[in-house]
Every structure is written in C-alpha cells, then in structure tokens.
Q: What sequence folds into this?
C-alpha cells in the first residue's frame, strides 16, 4: 500500500536537518522499521507509517519499506521561522513539516492559481517550561504575521500551540500532544490537516485527525 497522508503517520527526526522549503525526497516505511508501536487510547493497534529521509531505514525492497516519494517540505529551525511556497499545479501533491509540539503553523490565502505559502515558527527559548508556554506563542504569532506581511500575503489561519498541544482524552491529567501536520492538494487547492498523538517510551498513542481550518 503506498503512502497515504490521510492515515496516521509520524515524521521522523532524520528530516529535521532539512530546513529549506521545497520539493524534498523522502521514504515511507511501516512504523515497525523504527522499533516503535502505535495504539489508540483504548490500547488497540493502529496502523502507522513513518516518513523519513530518503533511505533512512533501508532502500526499496527492504523490510518495512513502502515507497520513495517526493513531498513539499516546510522546514523547521529552533528560534526561527521557515516557510514553503506550495504551487497550485505541478510537483508533489503532499506537504509535510516536522513534528509539532509547541510550534505555530501558518497558512496564507491562496493565489488565483492555487499557490499557497505556509510557515513553521519556533521560539523555544521563550518557553517557561513543559506546561508553561511563557511568551513563546505570542512571539511565534508575531513572527508569522511579520513574514506574511513582508511577503504581501494575507494570513488565512494560524495553528497555534493551544489548538493541538494539550490532551486529556481519557487520560485524566492534561498531557502534551504532538501533531503530524500535513497538506493535500486537490483540484489546485491545498487543504491542511493534523494527526494528534501522545508520545511515550517506545510507543505512540493516536488521538484523532482534524482539519486545520
């Protein structure tokens, strides 16, 4: 089965070094290639894939390799904002960005041809602690709006930490959730989604998939 972003997946840490936006070569594997597992809140197994740097867990034909593919990539770097311009036509039909657990993802209004700019902002040094975001969200919001203003593009939506980071779905105390954030292009229009999950010691707990408005 080829990679399908609509199904639960994890973005591997091997891609973090790719900070520049644009079309990027990646490989998709069954999560078993990493030695980790994925369940739902009730403990049932959840099929999960991992997207990694090309060849990270083996070449085509090796166990758990699904396919090599190209995606549009919106990079990440600590205490900075990265961006990617997604064409309305041509090139890959999927956009990925590194795992989010406190960053801000920005989406700009599309041009007439469907081209869309997205951003990934991080200001980790302004985070007061794991459960206290401090001034980080505000700084990320300001950086995102500033970049869109510089590009003369109106902001359509900001996915901020409070939109996805906190989880208490059946777990009692509030826990920190992560997001695999992705975009899908159809009919020259980009739509964005997030898979939310908890990360444990060798396992992921899938929470839900949501449209990013």
A:
């Amino acid at each position: 089965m080829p990679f399908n972003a609509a199904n639960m997946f994890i973005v591997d840490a091997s891609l973090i070094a790719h900070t520049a936006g644009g079309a990027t070569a990646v490989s998709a594997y069954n999560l078993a290639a990493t030695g980790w597992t994925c369940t739902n809140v009730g403990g049932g197994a959840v099929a999960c894939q991992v997207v990694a740097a090309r060849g990270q867990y083996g070449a085509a034909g090796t166990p758990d390799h699904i396919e090599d593919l190209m995606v549009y990539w919106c990079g990440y770097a600590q205490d900075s904002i990265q961006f990617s311009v997604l064409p309305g036509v041509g090139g890959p039909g999927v956009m990925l960005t590194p795992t989010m657990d406190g960053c801000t993802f920005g989406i700009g209004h599309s041009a007439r041809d469907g081209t869309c700019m997205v951003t990934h902002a991080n200001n980790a040094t302004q985070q007061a602690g794991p459960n206290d975001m401090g001034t980080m969200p505000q700084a990320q919001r300001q950086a995102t709006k500033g970049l869109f203003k510089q590009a003369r593009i109106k902001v359509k939506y900001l996915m901020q930490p409070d939109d996805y980071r906190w989880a208490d779905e059946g777990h009692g105390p509030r826990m920190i959730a992560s997001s695999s954030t992705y975009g899908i292009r159809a009919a020259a229009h980009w739509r964005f989604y997030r898979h939310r999950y908890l990360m444990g010691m060798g396992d992921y707990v899938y929470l839900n998939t949501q449209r990013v408005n």
Summary: Residues 89 and 188 are 6 Å apart (CA to CA). DSSP finds one helix and 15 strands in the chain.
